[in-house]
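1st attempt posting a full record on here, be nice pls
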Amino acid sequence: MGNIGDYLDWRGDISFGTDPFNEVDNLILAVLAYTDFEGVIPGPIWSPGSASEPPGVFSTVSENRSVGIAEAAERYFSLHSEEELKARETFYRLYPLLLRKVAGSKRFAGLRLSGYVNLVDPGRDLQMSAVTYEVGDGTWYLAFRGTDDTLAGWKEDFDLSYSGATVGQIFARNYLEATFGGQGLAVRVGGHSKGGNFAAYAAAFCSDSVKDSIIGVYSNDGPGFIESIADSPAFSSMLPRMVKIIPETSIIGILMSGRLKLRVVKSSESGFMQHDALSWEVLGNRFVVTDERSEESILFDETIKEWIHGVSTEDRKLFVDSLFGLFASAGVTTLDEYREHKLAATAAILKGFNRLQEEKRKRFMAILRKLVRSGVKVLKERIDDRLEDKIEDKTEEKIEEQTEEQIEDKTEDKIDEKDGNV
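the predicted structure (as tokens):
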């Protein structure tokens, strides 16, 4: 079965006039946002703000300088080689290679890119990157990047388990607002992983005038939200235009609530690696869908829900802050740094843990034990349910067998009785 790369090979010569924008096109533009477009695409006039001051974007999409997809690909590969990309250890290292396929296709020949921003600030648990595409069919697509290799980015993912609004989500909303405010343009908003969460948040909490211009919101295996956000009137108002696409063994996309319509797709990978968008199976201009999620995905989902309901917001925050504080104390700022110096970093993390205040250390371990117990409880309940189902099935089979035997016996008795009378 093919993937989005094969889709570009098979259908890259079909224009949007012949076959309108679809869910596969969405994923292609979402994963391209993982590309480091520094020095390739001009950014907006941007004010990142501070801890106490909200961020601001001053220029609109019509004011931003744009670059055609062919020129963007040429510029990018003059700065980065394929060997360099393939040598990276991130799950998204191959996504920028799609640039050449996209640039060489008739379908995306009119694609123009602008407004690239990439903000990472560990002091504010911030990692937000975005790029705006003029699709070429009269519409626009604003893509938010998912979690990158930085610990700041991963911490913000964990912050979603207790925070009403992260700094990154606020930046995302302000970027959407400033870029498309007052423009009257038809825009889709999307992203992969945390980028999907940012897209949904930005679309839900932007102004009504910008909401009116949004024709679709795509969360591609993006995590959900705490209930106060997911149940809010602002979020509910956007639900008809939102869709969440997840692989059958989704781990990231099923985290927390969201109320979004789920579209479950087949993947060529297994387990967590299904988060890799290049593994999602494509047939024609659609994903290959399946009716239900895998057993592992459901188990993980129920475990996290059980844990979240059993742990206070304060304790969730303490757990996340302590966990990532240990990485910071070890001098680790990216996952690549941790992988490169794994033994030394692990030793430094353990030393940092032993230096924690006794009360904080005890609470951290208690919360961790609750997570383990939640998993055990959910697993036991699912095993019990399956046993019950098997017992019920066996009982029903036995009753059916006995009923059939009784009917056969009575029929035989009737026949014998009639034969005797004759």
